[in-house]
Backbone:
């Protein structure tokens, strides 16, 4: 692991960002873990909801939640 530091101007202020990089990790595992974390976050925040999984039906199908529906409406405008 290593920590990379970079600087950027954000809203007129000079800020420092430190990023932690894991060197030598299999990229497939990294991508799948990112997708799992992203889908978990979207479920918790109400953007997507499991469609039939809660009733014991098909898994992997999702409906838009309240926040996801609003986002979809704004994108389509």
Residues:
């Amino acid at each position: 692991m290593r920590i990379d530091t970079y600087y950027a101007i954000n809203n007129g202020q000079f800020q420092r960002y430190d990023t932690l990089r894991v060197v030598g990790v299999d990229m497939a595992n990294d991508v799948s873990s990112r997708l799992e974390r992203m889908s978990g976050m979207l479920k918790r925040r109400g953007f997507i909801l499991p469609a039939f999984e809660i009733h014991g039906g098909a898994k992997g199908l999702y409906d838009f939640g309240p926040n996801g529906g609003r986002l979809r409406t704004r994108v389509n405008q």
Remarks:
- DSSP finds two helices and four strands in the chain.
